[in-house]
Design goal:
Helix content is about 25%, strand content about 35%. By secondary structure, it is of the alpha/beta class. β2, α4 and β3 form a beta-alpha-beta unit.
Length: about 240
């Protein structure tokens, strides 16, 4: 690997840090939603798929599954030959086709740091979703940031790469920051900053309305209980207004 491509190092560390995630549990939740509201013949699209570990647990759920991520290195980390992988920005999807079922997991929507980006995202999705299609996305709220601050301050070593993560939550900006520092075997140090905007719960309803979507269901994530502003993580299920 060349230092000129730092994402090759970060992709390894992020996949390592995410190894504790129960992807099968998460996939089973999405499957239950799709079994209830979707069809086996659906063509599906995953946004911000990362290392495609979630998609690998869902590839038999749909007639066909496409996965996207902005990082080519993250997509390369998964060797599942069944997946159709496309490197792209989820705000600017390159498809000239529509999908029946589009989903995004791991609070990826929180990485859209202002209302302009949120509007771009939903407006773009609208052009790629069938009139009767479903869009699923989960978001993190303030309680989730506060709850996990301590556990996200961590350090370790993986494949001769030392890593350190510092996590902070700015109450004024309502932004969750994750600062990641890598020290390579040769002593080189590279840094990356992740910013997640923690929007007010009700603001999502306004943005969806403005982009001609309506909320079919809004659950406390991984349950089928109604979400509230006091939830940690929220699962949205939305449809286009016809």
């Amino acid at each position: 690997m060349k230092l000129e491509d730092p994402y090759s190092y970060f992709s390894q560390i992020y996949s390592h840090l995410m190894s504790s995630v129960d992807y099968k549990f998460w996939a089973d939740y999405i499957k239950e939603i799709h079994n209830t509201l979707g069809k086996k013949s659906d063509i599906a699209l995953e946004l911000a798929a990362g290392n495609c570990a979630l998609a690998s647990n869902l590839d038999n759920q749909f007639k066909e599954l496409f996965v996207t991520d902005i990082s080519k290195q993250m997509l390369k980390n998964n060797v599942n030959g069944k997946l159709n992988k496309i490197c792209c920005d989820m705000k600017m999807l390159p498809f000239n086709r529509k999908f029946n079922f589009i989903y995004s997991a791991f609070d990826s929507v929180n990485y859209l740091n202002d209302k302009t980006q949120l509007n771009e995202f939903f407006n773009n999705i609208k052009t790629n979703l069938y009139d009767d299609g479903l869009l699923l996305f989960d978001i993190s709220l303030r309680n989730n940031s506060i709850k996990h601050l301590k556990s996200l301050n961590r350090k370790g070593k993986y494949k001769n790469i030392k890593y350190k993560q510092k996590s902070t939550f700015d109450e004024d900006e309502q932004i969750h920051y994750n600062y990641v520092t890598l020290k390579l075997e040769n002593g080189d140090i590279i840094n990356e900053v992740h910013k997640q905007k923690i929007y007010d719960f009700y603001s999502y309803f306004d943005v969806l309305e403005n982009n001609s979507f309506y909320v079919l269901e809004c659950f406390d994530a991984f349950t089928f209980d109604d979400a509230t502003e006091n939830s940690d993580r929220v699962q949205f299920i939305v449809k286009r207004k016809n």
